[in-house]
Design the sequence.
């Protein structure tokens, strides 16, 4: 059966750690592996980091720039070079590729989200391998994915992939960073989001010299992907051939089992496509109602309203410690909610002076995180 496979490769696998120069043999093996998968009839998307790293090597910079404008300029240099190398390799293997550069705003607006979906479907239908990266040169801070682990999970969720491979410079996930904790325990299988929380994995503060997110962003990417029903694997980028073996059933790397009943596409867009504009702190009754009984959120259960937002914006729903429990689209703006929080629904019209809807967030617009 044809599968949809998303492969993300990080800068740490694409470049030599000492020099920052491209790891050509890894990239060539990756291209061969992806072409092999295409010939098997599978639909393949590559999410490739490396624009900043390759740009730095091209310009002789010895460390990742911190200033935003410089990073954006360097990414513009590197992205062209990166895609040229991919095109050379894939052309040699007679495989068409496409460059797809996305920013967060492409997924925030529902019409653009659906448009991105349609473009991916067309490309995959044409047998093309889309090569995706964040459009670093134009992305502004508030509208950034920030790391390609998250981007790859959102792409895998958008196209409802069967597999997401996160290729990196460690062979799998460990209980703590194996660089600093030599006896960290390797983790072969994570069977649910609940188990992931119980494992209490330590990720340190950041990744390797050239990577951006480290392991923390890979774990949160895995959460997004498995909620969308995508089996996710963290494995070593130096051996891209392992992807074939893993698909055939070998337990290499760390596997995250997909959720059996994936969250619907619209709810996934609410949860991960949109950027929350505020926070509502809930009392325990409201938390139980939304998380255990699948109910809508009423004004009575809201203790604190944080941020300024409009009707139909996405907000985070938190417990009193600020831990996020759910996200949803609000039926009232922040000014209205400041007035009606803690009140019974039947009091709303008297407080606001006009009749509003009974629910603050209807359960159809509410997603547990
Ligand atoms: N619990 C952990 N298990 C495995 N690796 C970890 C863990 N915590 C932190 N790391 C670090 O994460 C790094 C990979 O992240 P990163 O450098 O961002 O890679 P990439 O460029 O592939 O995205 C590894 O080199 C490893 O040192
Ligand atoms: N978009 C950036 C990569 C961001 C990123 O997540 O990097 P990495 O941690 O190496 O996967 C680039 O192309 O340099």
Sequence:
């Amino acid at each position: 059966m044809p599968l949809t496979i998303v492969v993300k490769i990080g800068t740490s696998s694409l470049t030599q750690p000492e020099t920052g120069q491209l790891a050509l043999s890894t990239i060539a093996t990756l291209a061969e592996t992806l072409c092999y998968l295409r010939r098997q009839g599978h639909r393949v998307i590559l999410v490739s980091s490396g624009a900043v790293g390759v740009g730095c090597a091209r310009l002789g910079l010895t460390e990742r720039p911190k200033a935003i404008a410089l990073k954006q300029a360097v990414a513009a240099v590197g992205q062209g070079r990166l895609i040229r190398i991919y095109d050379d390799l894939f052309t040699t293997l007679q495989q068409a590729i496409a460059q797809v550069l996305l920013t967060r705003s492409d997924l925030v607006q529902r019409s653009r989200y659906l448009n991105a979906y349609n473009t991916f479907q067309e490309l995959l239908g044409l047998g093309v391998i889309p090569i995706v990266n964040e459009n670093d040169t134009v992305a502004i801070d508030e509208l950034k994915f920030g790391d390609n682990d998250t981007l790859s999970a959102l792409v895998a969720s958008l196209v409802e992939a069967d597999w997401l491979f996160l290729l990196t410079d460690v062979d799998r996930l460990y209980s703590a960073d194996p660089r600093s904790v030599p006896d960290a325990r390797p983790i072969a299988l994570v069977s649910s989001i609940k188990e992931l929380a119980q494992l209490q994995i330590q990720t340190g503060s950041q990744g390797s010299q050239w990577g951006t997110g480290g392991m923390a962003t890979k774990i949160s990417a895995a959460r997004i992907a498995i909620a969308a029903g995508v089996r996710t694997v963290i494995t070593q980028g130096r051996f891209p051939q392992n992807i074939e073996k893993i698909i055939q059933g070998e337990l290499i790397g760390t596997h995250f089992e997909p959720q059996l009943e994936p969250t619907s596409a619209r709810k996934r867009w609410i949860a991960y496509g949109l950027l929350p504009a505020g926070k509502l702190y809930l009392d325990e009754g409201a938390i139980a109602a939304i998380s255990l009984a699948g109910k809508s959120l009423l004004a009575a259960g809201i203790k604190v309203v944080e941020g300024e937002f409009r009707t139909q914006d996405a907000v985070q729903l938190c417990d009193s410690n600020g831990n996020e429990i759910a996200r949803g689209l609000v039926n009232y703006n922040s000014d209205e909610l400041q007035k009606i929080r803690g009140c019974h629904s039947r009091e709303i019209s008297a407080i606001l002076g006009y009749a509003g809807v009974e629910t603050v967030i209807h359960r159809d617009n509410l997603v547990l995180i």
Notes: Residues 330 and 361 are 5 Å apart (CA to CA). Residues 276-368 form a domain with the Archaeosine Trna-guanine Transglycosylase; Chain: A, domain 4 fold (CATH 2.30.130.10).
